[in-house]
Amino acid sequence: xxxxxxxxxxxxxxxxxxxxxxxxxxxxxxxxxxxxxxxxxxxxxxxxxxxxxxxxxxxxxxxxxxxxxxxxxxxxxxxxxxxxxxxxxxxxxxxxxxxxxxxxxxxxxxx
Length: 111
Prior knowledge:
Layout: E1 2-11, H1 15-23, E2 34-42, E3 48-57, H2 60-67, H3 70-79, E4 88-97
Antiparallel strand pairs: 1-3, 1-4, 2-3
């Protein structure tokens, strides 16, 4: 499994805009090899808000296929020249090759 994280730190009161953008339906969900996308809000920050997007792929190859897909490239072309919103303070992207997965004993079972 291959995981990409994107941490977006925004000015207080603006996390909803980022959450809405990454929660909306899009072409990414149609990509072969995509497992899921999770969008989370860090509740500990006082001065700003952090939205974490976790994108899980079956493999690094599946992610690479997304990166070089027409849909992904077109999306970047469409946003070329546009300034990022002023409320975005920083964005950090990381990539991980998953080494171990441990499932909870009751996950998926009705209790």
